[in-house]
Every structure is written in C-alpha cells, then in structure tokens.
What does this fold into?
Amino acid sequence: MFGIEEAYCNAMVSGLIKANQALLDTTVEEAIAASYVPFKGDTLGIDQIPENTIANVLTEFDQYAVLITEERGEDANPLSRHTALTVRGPRTFFVCDPCDRSSPLCAYLRNHKRDARRVADVLMKKNAKENWEKAHSGPCSITGANAAITCVRRGLPICSALLNYITQEIIIACSAGIFHASLFDHDDANKLTLDSMNRTRHLSFPYVNRASYKNFVTFVGKPERGYPQNLALTKLSKEDDLKQHLHYDQPGGPTRILYLTNQQAEQKTMGFILANGEKIGEWIHWLPFIRFAKREEDRGAEALHLFEITQDQSSLRDGYLMTPTEPYSVFKEVVEGRVVINVDKLGDFDNPSKYRATLLVVPASNDWAIGRAQQYGYRELKFYGD
It folds into this structure.
C-alpha cells in the first residue's frame, strides 16, 4: 500500500475511533434529540455528533479534503468549487455516513434511557448485543448501528473503514487486505493504525454453493418510495420467491457487504447483495471490499464481482434516477472494461449525497447470479489499474 494511502486510511480510523468515543460520552437525551441542520429536518444528535468529530479529524489531516455526507443538508456541492488549488475539482474526497441505522439506534436508546445517563451506559451493557438482535435482527456484527468512511483518490476508492457502535468492532478494507479488530482488545484504541490491524483477524468471503445462489439481502422497505418496484425490475428475484430467498428487507447500507463474509456464513450463506436504487452513502463503502477481496482458495483471484443494473425506465427519488444508465452514471470507462468514479459528474450535482444507483455484488463462485447479470446485459464494473 502506498504511504499516502496508508496515511489517509489511518486518518479515517482515527476519525471513527474519536467519533465513537464522542457518541459514547454523549447523554442519551442529547443523542436522541433533534439536531439543527439547515434544510434537513430529520438529523439527530447520533448523526451530528460523530459527523462533527469525523469532519474535524479529516480536516486537520488534510485542510483541502472534501467531505460528502447527507447530514450536511443542502449546502453547495463542495466538489463543484474551483480555486487556484484545484483543477477540475479535487482529486481526493471522503464519503461519510456518521450513523447508519440511526432510526433503530434511536429507538434502542429511547427504550433504555430510564436505566442510563450516557450512551455508553446503554451500549456497554453485557447483554447489549443480544437485546439488539432481538429488536433489529442479527448477527449484531452486521446489523448494528455503525459509522463508515470511504476515501476516493484519483477516481479510485482506496479505503473503507467501518465502526460498529454496538459491538465496538472496526473493519478496514484497503489494498493491504481486509482486517477486523475489536476495540476491547486494545488498551488504547486511539493508537490503532493500519499497521497494528495488519496483525488482527482477516475477513474472508466464503464459497457459495448452489443451494445458496438465490439468497440475498437488499432494502425493500418504504414501498411508497418505490423500492419494491425497483427490485422487481432487476429480474433477480420474483415476488413469489422473496419470502424464501430475501434474508432481510431493511438492512443497513455500509455493512451490507459483510453479509457476504464469514461473519454471516456461520448462520446462512448469502448468494448476493443489492443496492436497490439507494443513495451513494449506502453503497460506496462496498467498493474497496470489492476491489481488494481475494478468494480463499486462490489469493490471486478476485472474490467479488460488481454489476451496474440499468433499466429502460427508472423512477426518480428527490430528482435523482434510481437506476441511471451509463450516460448518467458516475462510473466512467477510461479504458476498455475499466472504470473510475467520475468526480466531475459528482461535481455537477446540487447534492452528490443524493446520487442513487442499483448495483449487484456477487461472489465469484455464484455462477447463477453472474449468469443472470450477463443475460440481462448489466455492465460489469472493474476499476482502472486493478
């Protein structure tokens, strides 16, 4: 891994750990109270407090860093700003979700606020994981409320870092590998770096057998927003099959990629995951996993395939297509079969955090899902330089 990329990765890890501590130290009342953000009415303390901490850490690391996050509301698109120091927009930016699954976390804290003053008093209880899984599905290592940061440099997603607020685990995906560590195993979590995580447990993406090919996870809640209808148009699962094959219908975004790892396979192996016309902050964190995951049986072969699903027609949400076709896609082909993330196109949007896409992520061993994607002409995305 290049030194500059390792430095960005360590800054992201530091931001997440400090955001985690800031949230744990917050009172439950402050965490579940509304937090004022211009033009955005549903932001809570559990969103704003970690976001402010992450923004401070990343800005201190790189004063020219651009941070894209939904919680910032309808501010001008920072990627569209041009100064003497930027040529056609900055080459490096971060996408952050300071609290994915904030609604379940808010409900969880509200249900336990009589017994605790601080957020830590709730989340550090011995039975917190079991209580979370009873209320909001499991395994908690995947379904728990979390924070995520992804760094895009020169059009390539170079690193993602995920921190689970419930289990106090952190996961990093980068060119050095995919690492998993528990904050409880470190006397001083603030000293955690990529180098120290290199000695921790690696996550793997297990082989998928034929019986599990059609098992999948995606978001199909909020029917009034068109998610069930968008799923039907992908042709990946018939309505009659959903009860059998759809494992969970309201998963989080960033950690959805973990359903394809050995963390989920211990319970029930998943055949694929889907971004169902969702915002960029839900799925961009998967991209470094897809770039750098290798098969267990062949460390030189890619473990995951990524397809961009397009349709002849697409619904609009907040003015953005749920299934943008190639001319509207942020994935730009630069050489035959290889793409980058088009920073210029993101710079054209009023709010890039609202950009949407329908994406399919498939283990390399799932011949059925790969065949379906190829049958319907979905574009396979492979990043330039890989």
Summary: The radius of gyration is 20 Å. The chain has two domains: 3-202, 210-380. The mean pLDDT is 89.
